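[worker-b] picked up task from shared queue
[worker-b] task type: protein-ligand structure
[worker-b] ligand name resolved to flavin-adenine dinucleotide; SMILES cross-checked against name lookup, match
[worker-b] sequence length check passed
[worker-b] input payload:
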Amino acid sequence: MKQLEFDSNNLTGQLWDIVIVGGGMVGAATALGLSKNGFKVLILEKGPVNLDWDHSSEYRMRVSALTRASEKILKNLGVWTGIENRRCHAFTAMHVWDEVTPGEVHFSAKDIQEPNLGHTVENAVIQAAIWEQLEQQDNVSVLYTAEISDVETSEQQAHLRLVGDVCVKTQLLIAADGAFSKVRELANIGLKTHDYQQCAIVGCVKTESSHQDTCWQRYTGDGPFAFLAMDENVSSIAWYLPNEKMDWALSLDDETFAEEISRASDYRLGQVVEVAQRDGFPLVRRHAEHYVKPHLALVGDAAHTIHPQAGQGVNLGLLDAAALIEKVVEARDAGKDFGSYSVLRKYERWRRGDNEIVQRSMEAFDWLFKQDASLKVAFRKFMLPVANRMSFVKNWLMDQALNGRESLPELAKRVLSK
Ligand SMILES: Cc1cc2nc3c(=O)[nH]c(=O)nc-3n(C[C@H](O)[C@H](O)[C@H](O)COP(=O)(O)OP(=O)(O)OC[C@H]3O[C@@H](n4cnc5c(N)ncnc54)[C@H](O)[C@@H]3O)c2cc1C
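[worker-b] inference finished, payload out:
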């Protein structure tokens, strides 16, 4: 990988196969997949990416639960060993219960003959492991801190104008610049949004009792509360609260925060005995009206954000990356213009509907567990114990969550031999 200086002679005049704005987990994975397939890739990233890793370092605040489909994509990209060498944790069960009804649902990997139901990994670990591989690629360049001022697409190529009057030309511009994507905005792609009026407080905590390699999720009047199993007695928390409680939760001293968390989890893992840094995120569903224009495609949070209660955001983003890589490589190998609208539309048709289904199912879940109507409470009272006994429904749900739907990209289906 070459690090470029901001020099107009270096950048103007050449035509890049691929330019990716945003080197987060999804943008970096897309860059790696395309560069491994021989494309000349330029990544524009706002901030330097920190690759330093020290095993003794504190657990980071942002953690993702990765599905088997994501694990396969990352294995196929040669990244998984870098994740395992740093830090990740396989969880083997998921336990869901509700504050106001007695039913509980237990999902176990054993029931579907799988070794686990996924891995919890710090986002910084995923990103560092991908960038470590990118550094080995001769056909990848990176330019830090460039500010975008304009995006133009035509039938032939895309032009990205940077502050400082530099124009970067590419066959395919990929926006992976997150939920507040500047590329999406400059390309005039509309966005449908829904404010959940809820925030997530995240961080890592130590508990009195072991998490037993299980992720625990309790539905409360304020919203769900989750423990994601990390290390011995260490869990990452996701505490969902109405937006107006975010400042209150973040201003609590450690002792009070630990007590509030213990209470929200109904002391399921005993008392929370140690808390680390925490942060809060207001939650908004976003869906781009289009994922593509001629020579432009959106991936990951630039295309969609979702309620994180089922931990699907980066998993969907990695599926976008794998699907886009597949369609672009297929077109190039068939001698077609890989950035053309007809090629990119195949990617959009594949991924947009799938992402919409996952967004909608989260909405249905959220609606059902909002404890504001006696009819819904009565339904849950009946449904949770029944659901726990219906092993075929539970097994189907586990399989969908772990392995994804049928129409998976090749990179997510199986670990391909080299
Ligand atoms: C509380 C919470 C919990 C979550 N838990 C899970 C989970 O368990 N499982 C899961 O799958 N997902 C989870 N998610 C969602 C997941 O974090 C996101 O889907 C994921 O981070 C999206 O990755 P991305 O690479 O698309 O975007 P980002 O991570 O936002 O990366 C965007 C990158 O673009 C760069 N960038 C931005 N603007 C510019 C610009 N103008 N120029 C250049 N570079 C730019 C940024 O610096 C960054 O590197 C959670 C989200 C939240 C809020």
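[worker-b] attaching auto-annotations
[worker-b] The pocket of flavin-adenine dinucleotide is lined by residues 21-27, 44-47, 64-65, 148, 176-178, 182, 200, 202, 238, 281, 300-301, 308, 311-315, 317 (CB under 6 Å).
[worker-b] releasing lock
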